[in-house]
Amino acid sequence: MTDHPSLQPYVDAWTESIEAISELVKPLAEGEWNRSTACPGWSVRDVVSHIIGLECELLGDPRPIHTLPRDIYHVVDEPSRHMEIQVDVRRHHTGPEMTSELEYTIIRRTRQLRNEKRAPDAEVQSVMPGGGKMPLERQLMLRAFDVWVHEQDLRRALGKPGNLDSAGAHVARDVLLLGLPKVVAKRASAPVNSAVVFDISGPVEFMRTVRVDAEGNGSVDGSPSLGPAVTISLDWETYLRLACGRVRFDQVSDQVKIEGDAALGAAIMNVFSVTA
């Protein structure tokens, strides 16, 4: 257990998700590692490689010296190039090689987290290129979020749903809610002094209101709005897929109910990815 109780929920959520991933991929036949996922250009193997690579960087392992092929279409900028190196270097690894490295990485990282002595506000390096420093608590929150989202990517690719209400799911809810004000107020240009209600059903159920003030700035809270400009209702998994950029609104519009200003509702859902 870490020295600081406020960090432990993120460590626990990360542990639950990464161990679930290990159990998911352990019995895979070689061909199943090549199944495509909702992450552009990434197979099951690639998603697992991404997870291993980032955790190894947090362990302090040197980044691979590797030149990417020129024809990887989804590598469009420096962040995606940075992420792709850890993925491409493992593209020819066999299933047993992948599961062995994942298990060993989990053991090492678990030990590191168990012995964590730094305070939650200790400044640590972001794993993203040019990401600068961030508090340790935020880094652990984002790792719990990332690993759980990729667990869901793998489950959908392999046809093995589950853990939509796990500890990682609740971390993901909190992370994704942080992006809602920007989506509504800035990207969708919701009118000033307006409110937009999101009503989410399913394994993780919640209702939140995004309010746009007189200066056009957004904020989110759990208080109901008596006269929202629009109310958007959808299930938790669809919310997750849209917010994480795994699917477009036009592909799942039949699973989204918009009441009130239909044009504003559609504008919001068309720019709903908060991880982009």
TrEMBL record:
It comes from Streptomyces daliensis. Residues 171-266 form the MDMPI C-terminal domain. This is Maleylpyruvate isomerase family mycothiol-dependent enzyme. Residues 15-155 form the Mycothiol-dependent maleylpyruvate isomerase metal-binding domain. It comes from the Bacteria. Keywords: Isomerase. NCBIfam families: maleylpyruvate isomerase family mycothiol-dependent enzyme (TIGR03083). GO terms for molecular function: isomerase activity; metal ion binding. SUPFAM superfamilies: DinB/YfiT-like putative metalloenzymes (SSF109854), SCP-like (SSF55718).
